[in-house]
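Report of the visiting student (M.T.), summer placement. My assignment was to run the structure pipeline on a short list of targets and document each run. The first record concerns EF-hand domain-containing protein.
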Amino acid sequence: MLLLALLYPSYAQSHPHVWVDAALIIHRNEAGEISALEPVWIFDDLYTASLLPDLDQDQSGKVEKPELLTFAKEAVGNLQEWDYFLKVKREDASALQYKKEIITDGTVLNDRLLLRFRLELEDPIKAGTVVQVQMYDPSYFIAIDFIDDKTVSYLPSSLPSSLNGCTHNVTHPDDFAENTTSLSDLVFSDEEVAENPDLGSIFAKTVEVRC
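After the run finished, the structure tokens were exported:
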């Protein structure tokens, strides 16, 4: 059931049940174009402790790397229906198309599950194009929050100096609020959640990247 909670978000919850610290790795090709997006998720320790026994398929008492990789592949594969919890806008209005092959990885770091997956773009984003990225579970069953000091990183780090570097800035959802109530203080009934299939977007930070 814990595995299903990740793969199939519930739309009848008024608050999150899983918390994720997130970061985004931007991959660039030799031309300086954005060639892939790689979300990195670190799950809360309580969810990790609850999930790991279910991943120990051979009942060895320890979740081994192959078992973590199997979980990562299945979890990310099932997130395709929800666009991998990514909402990406480009200033050129072109829609993103990801390649079918997805590189996934899973590990346990400081008693917390770390999941990462690399989405290769069919058509790289040309240098200079502004891209806005939000990362959220539409149902808000999983609360995904960018890590403030490590929101975005770039690979490789050794592109020629002739290529423009990348910049990014983060807009918090409260910056868009028209009232004085912090979004973190809002409470929604189960009925309101059911009527709003994109509830998670209200709480999502927006990361704007230009390379």
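The beta strands are 18-28, 34-43, 86-90, 103-109, 112-125, 130-135, 142-146, 152-155, 167-171, 206-210. Residues 2-210 form one domain. I thank the supervising group for their guidance throughout the placement.
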